[in-house]
Here is the input.
Amino acid sequence: RLEMRRRCTWNIFQSIEYAGEQDQIKLYNFFDFLMHHFTPASSESKTRRLPTHVSIFGPVDFWERYFCYESIEVPDSYTGPRLTFPMTFCGVSKVVQAFKHKQQLHARYVLQLLRETWRLLRILTNISHVSTCHTKEITICGDLHGHLEDLLLIFYKNGLPSSEKPYVFNGDFVDRGKNSLEILLILFGFLLVYPNDVHLNRGNHEDHIVNLRYGFTKEVLGKYRVHGKKILNLLQKIFSWLPLATVIDHKVLIVHGGISATTDLNAIARVDRHKVRDDANSDGCKTQAMGSNHREASGPAEGRRRVCSLTHHSSPPAQRSDLPRRSLHNLPMGSLLSWSVEEELKRRRRLAGPLSSVLTMTDSSTQIVDVLWSDPMPQNGCIPNEVRGGGCYWGPDVTEEVLGRHNLQLLIRSHECKQDGYEFCHNRRVLTIFSASNYYEMGSNRGAYIRMGPDLVPHFIQYQASQACRELTLRQSVGWTERSALRALREQLFVHKSDLISAFQEFDPNNTGKISLSHWASATESVLKLGLPWRVLRPQLVSSTQYGMVDYQMWIRELSITEPKLQISDTSILETMYKNHSNLETIFRVIDTDHSGSISFEEFRQTWRLLCSHLKTEISDEAIADLAHSIDFNKDGSIDINEFMEAFRLVDLSAHNIKNSVEIQDGQ
Here is the structure.
């Protein structure tokens, strides 16, 4: 029974996570289209000033000046490590110790370290090649996601990186956890000291648009209020230069996500990786339509430079005179709502001309999308990864073909949280490694890393970074994570309550207010689309039933969620807000390009218009203005983003005193 509860809890966490990623990709694609086919009408708008997408591909001398740190003085009162360059083992060890004791590295040293990292990454190849020998093993780490305690534990158990202790870190260093920047600075420091023995692969979270949603942007701006904007721009540049893969002894391939039927290491080795952009500002307008052996070409890209997007595959600029830009802000709301991104892309595809003109850039970006975003599946074949919204699912037949074609024996990848920290699949030819323990919740999973010697046999070291979690019994650990998962699931149910009621009413033609358990499960899945065993979850979600029937009106009212007490005339805007909380925060942070943390009423209105266009729904300007005034707490005519998002953060009443409930309920 405990194992069933554990697996069910895991399915809840993973389904909600992947649904969020799919939502992010849809919003990401929407941004990409807007940025390249619409221009702001007002020169006063922040959306007119987008320094990152204007200058990200500037010349080297521009970036050398932009990395400038000489004018930043380090005061005598600063008690953190004082670094000298070239970086030394002693210097990076001081950084590790400082972060261990929660000290912050001065902005001058952060910028200097980032400049040296950028200079080094520019001379590295897309695929790093590593050789083993009898005197040393290679250590391979998976996703860390800002969990500094996991990285420090790995170093404690395994030793610091050195020429005798080489490491491969397989991407997703940032987001979700609270110490992403510290992890980057430590890894960059060791990379500078041991460039032949420390290898960093890029992950799908090394992407500044993804960072807007999952916390890294907010973390950096919170820690470096004066220089945070520059640090973020430099990191965006650095992310684009991270290598894409590592190969050990010509036999073991390490990539973050995986492969597809069309993966070609020779093609990946030739890609200009820093020109394949994975943000909403890149100049591409091609949607990804992947089958097992099919990629659909699309229309031309406009603008400053031909650059690919990692969720859109660019084509050379062609027939620009036929593709005029339009102003988003000059369009009436009705036009925005009737306008279909898909229809516009199809129109531009027709204007794009012959497929041969777009093959080169399409193949490059496709290769990178697949290695960053893909997941393995047990069935043969290669299909679009519609669960995540990017990359593909590939089967054991694809593994055999791709590894055989490149004379490889093992594929090591990360990208998916595993309960034990690692997992084999595809006849033990694909190995997933995940190094962030307690990823979903305390006790949800162990972290792991791999040691591999010249025999190329992986040896696993598992760990649990949380001392509190190590002290819990299995029953207590399952109970803790189960309550957390159910709390997250109740939030999803709450924000979709109107859609749920409509779905329930379809099974209740006589308006009795009651439906069968089977209909309750079917309707709930049809709305949330999480692929969960709802009938199994029913006892934890529905407090009571009578004769196998669910009183759905009472059930909706009993969901233990509180709402903000705001005086708003149009309450429908609240449900839209709840349902699209993360999307709205991402749009806010895209519009707030100067990273001031606040936006004007007009920018707030534009944010909602963008969201309504994305959702193909309509909310009146009056309702938006009403909401803006109600949350302008200090009445200064602007809205603080963090205060706004916190005001609308849902609170689960059942979460109160959860620590005590764990001890009481599971300690018996």
